[in-house]
Amino acid sequence: MGITVEPGEETAEIRQFIDLVWPPGSDAASPVAHIIWDTKPAFRIIARDSGRTILGHVAAFLRQGTLDGLPVLIGGIGHVGTHPDLRGRGIASEALREASQEFTDRSVDFGVLFCATSNFSFYARLSWRVFDGEVYIAQPRNCRQEHSGNCMTLDLRQSPRGGVLHLHGLPW
């Protein structure tokens, strides 16, 4: 298996993989199904087998936001997925470690991801911590919406555990 950092554009191959991992309509019952998400990552971390088939995927976002009113560079993580037949083999974990290294190399202040609370323990094993503060996101119909409760952060240059985090854009 090889892990590569690739451009953020969504290709037909990536769309097909995303639809395999999260079939269209599968999130209809989700409590966050009404939220509009950012779909334009800065880069992607892709795990491929020797035949170049995608085995795992992480979308990475770079965003200027604020924490307690002070400017920060946020590294966002989204669309973390592993091929359904290969889950539990460390593919997503390895891709997330590579994304963390990319964030470090790009002088990101801290990482942010949104997930179901049932996934907290998975991310905690990779050094992500629950963010207990307020999180504000942009949505097309509202200039500001609170989205607290399902946010985790990764310590890089800063280690936020609370406060007021404003993404100044769509969540990922």
Attribute tags:
172 residues, ten-stranded mixed β-sheet, globular, Aminopeptidase, alpha+beta
The fraction of residues assigned to DSSP E strands is 35-45%
Looking at the structure, the CATH topology is: Aminopeptidase
| Fourth CATH level, the homologous superfamily | Gcn5-related N-acetyltransferase (GNAT)
Overall mean pLDDT: 92
pLDDT < 50 stretches = none
Distance between the termini: 26 Å
Fold and architecture overview:
It is a single chain. With 172 residues, this protein is an alpha+beta fold. It has one domain: Gcn5-related N-acetyltransferase (GNAT) (Aminopeptidase), CATH 3.40.630.30. 17% of the residues lie in helices and 38% in strands. The protein has three helices and ten strands; from the N terminus they run E-H-E-E-E-H-E-H-E-E-E-E-E. Strands 1, 2, 3, 4, 5, 6, 7, 8, 9 and 10 form a ten-stranded mixed sheet that branches. The radius of gyration is 15 Å and the shape is globular. The model has no long low-confidence stretch (mean pLDDT 92).
